Amino acid sequence: MIFQLLTLTYEYKLKPTKEQTQEIERTLGVCRKVWNHALRERKDWLNSRKCLVDACSIQSEYIISSDTPYPNYAKQCKTLTDAKEQYAELTTVNAQVLQQVLRRLETAFVDMQRKKMGFPRFKNHYRMRSFVFPQMLKNCWQGSRHIKLPQLGLVKVIKSRDIPEGFEIKQARIVRKASGYFIMLSLQCDVNVPDVLAHGQPLGIDIGLEQFLATSDGEMVARPRFFKTLQCKLRLLQRRLKHKVKGSNNRRKLNQKVARVNQRISDTRKDWHFKLAHHLCDFAGMIFVEDINFKAWAKGMFRLHTLDAAFGQFFSILEWVCWKRGVYFGKVDKDYTSQQCPQCGTHTGKKYLSDRVHSCPECKYTTHRDVAAALVIRNRGSSGLGTSLGEIACGGDAAGGTRRDKKKGGTASVHSAV
Ligand SMILES: [Zn+2]
User: Fold this and answer.
1) Least C-beta-crowded within 10 Å: which of 107, 239, 331, 418?
2) CA-to-CA distance for 245 and 267, rounded, in angstroms?
3) Model pTM greater than 0.85?
4) Residue 206 backbone class (left: φ over 0; alpha: ψ -120 to 50; beta: rest)
5) Which residues have CB atoms below 5 A from the ion given as ligand 1?
C-alpha cells in the first residue's frame, strides 16, 4: 500500500477593519519594494556578465566587479537584514514575510530555468497581490469568527467550513482580490493517508478542442456557454481601458471592473470543474487521463483554446475529487491516442481536426473520434495496472455494438478480480 502526506488549501473571506486593511496594503507595498529591489539587483548582476568582448560600452556600463558573487537567496536575505538599519520601513513588517518575498523570487528564477517560464517581472501595485505568513500559531482560530495573525492581530473571518480533523495549519497567505481580502490556509495532515487502490469500472477521458471532454462510455461534455458571454464582456472592458488616461480615476475604476469580471470567470470555471469531476466519479471506480505537459501545450497550437478551458486546473481538481471519493486516478502515455483503434489496436494514421469519426479499416469499428481516443486511454490505463480487458487485445471480427456489451462483461470481471 502506498502512503502520502496530504496538504490542502482552504480559502476564507476576511473582514478586516479599516486599520487592518491599511496595514495589509502597507505590507503589500513594502513587499513590492523588496521584490523590485531584489530583482533589480539580480538583473544588474546578470547584465554585467554579458558584455560582448568586441563591443565598447557607449550607451551604458554596469560597474560590478568580476569577483562579486551572484545575489542568491541567502545573500539577499543578509542584504535585507543589513538594510533594516538604513530603512526603518523594513522593520515595520514581519521579517519572515519579507524573507518569503525573496524566496518567491528565488523560485521564479529556478522555474525560469527548469520549467522554461518567463523572466521574473517588476511588480506594480496591481501585480503584488499577496504575502505569506510562513508560520502560524497552533491555536490561531479564536472562536469561529476570528483568526489571530502576526502583525495584524485578531482579524474577523467568515468561517465557511471547518478545518478537517487531523489537519494542522502550516502557512497563511493573505490575498487581495477584486471582491475583497482572502486568507488561504495551507493545511497538512500529520497522519499518513493510504492511496486509493485500483478497483471497479474504468473510465477513460479525452480532452479536446471541440468538446470539453469525451468519456469512454460515449458521453460528450460540451464547453459551457457562459464563458463566452463573460469573455465578450471582458474584451469590451479591456478595449475601453486603452482610451483612459494612465493614473486617472476612471482608469482605476475600469481596472477594478476588469478584475471583477476576471474573478467571476475563474470562480465560475472552478465551480463547473468541481461539478463535472463529481459527475464523472459517479460512474467510475478508476479514471484515466492523458499525461499532458500543459505548459508546453499552451504554447503550441492549442494556445487560445486551452487558456479558456484551463485543462490543467481541471485535471488537478479531478485528481483531488477522485481521491476524496475513493476513485482511482491514473495518467497514461499521451502519444497516438487519437491514431489507434480501441478495438483491435491497429494504427489508423493521423487524423485531421476535421475528421470527426473514427473508422477502423481492419475491424470496421466506428465511433466518434474523441470517444475512440477515450477508449484507447481507458485501455492503456487498465492494461498498465495489469488488468487488461481480455477481449480488447485480440483481433476483431464482431461488429461495434456487440463488442461494447462484451467489454462491459470484461470490466465486471476486473472488478471481482481486484
Ligand atoms: Zn480496429
Assistant:
1) 239
2) 30
3) no
4) beta
5) 341, 343-344, 346, 360, 362-363, 365
